[in-house]
Amino acid sequence: MRRVEATLKAMDKTDEYHGNAQYLMSPELDAKRQVFPDEWPGQSRPQLLEQLKGKALDYADLAIKTQQLKAMGQPLNRDYRSVLHFMENDGGQTFDEEMSFIYEKEDLITLRPGREYAWLDSIVERVLRVLRCRFTVESSAKTNDSTIHYYDRGRISAFVTFIITLVIMLLLVVPIWLLYKCSVAASTSSTTTSSVATGAVTMGIISVSTLVFSAMLSVFTKAKRHEILAASAGYCAVLVVFLGNVGGCGGGQ
Q1: What is the mean pLDDT of residues 104-111?
Q2: Which of 172, 188, 154, 189 has its CA nearest to residue 236?
Q3: Residue 246 DSSP one-character state
């Protein structure tokens, strides 16, 4: 494309030098011309423009396909290491001359759909590998090699979902229970010092709980910064509203 553009620029200068400025101002007149300068490379300006258009379309198509390939995402480290070890140990005997591409990790893509908490799947599989545990008989029957491990992807996903659900429940129940205990302690306390100390503990519980909630959002999801900020503000508001309601009930009693 740059060479074609440079050629077109040189053709424009040649026409300007020979006093053929009318061809520069009128594409229709330039397309009908019959006599060309000797300095031209054997092609007319419309032909080069059409060639440049084709190259630009090809480049745009290549850019779109490159973007689509990059959108597929790169393989996880554990998936990459798994394929790398297979090719170096077993596959290397067959693909020794054609396996150099596996070392270019930045150029690799994965067809496997990504998960927001795939790292947790990796931890579960690592624990199962250390414990030499397999979920089903079918997985055990696939191989007798102690270095190859097969796991039921559906059961691992269900177990990971259970862990995330348990974490969410703890993030909601534990702070509320602690705030309730602090509220009861404050309502039964008769000294100002104890009330101040209880208030400080309450603020600490709300702050720590909100911080942990934000960290969990960052770790377990792909939420953006403003989404994490909004969710954390809502979580903190829920705790404060609960504390206010419990305090109001305690004061009424």
Answers
A1: 80
A2: 172
A3: H
In this structure, of 112-121, 162-171, 231-240, the range with the lowest mean pLDDT score is 112-121
| pLDDT value at 134 more than 60 | no
- Helix 118-131 to helix 153-188 angle, to the nearest 10 degrees? 110
Look up residue 113 and give its DSSP letter. Answer: P
SS3 232: helix
pTM over 0.85: no
Q: Which residue has the tokens 């109001």?
A: 248
| Measured distance CA(158)–CA(137) in Å, rounded | 18
CA–CA distance, 114 with 138 (Å, rounded to integer): 25
- Cβ proximity of 106 and 70 under 8 Å: no
Q: Are 216 and 171 in contact (CB under 8 A)?
A: yes
DSSP 44: -
Tell me whether residue 68 is exposed, middle or buried, using C-beta atoms within 10 angstroms of its C-beta: 0 to 12, 13 to 18, 19 or more. exposed
d(CA 3, CA 219): 49
Six-digit token string for 234: 């809502």
Task: State the burial class of residue 4 (Cβ atoms within 10 Å of its Cβ: 0-12, 13-18, 19+).
Answer: middle
What is the pLDDT confidence band of residue 61, given thresholds at 50, 70 and 90?
Answer: very high
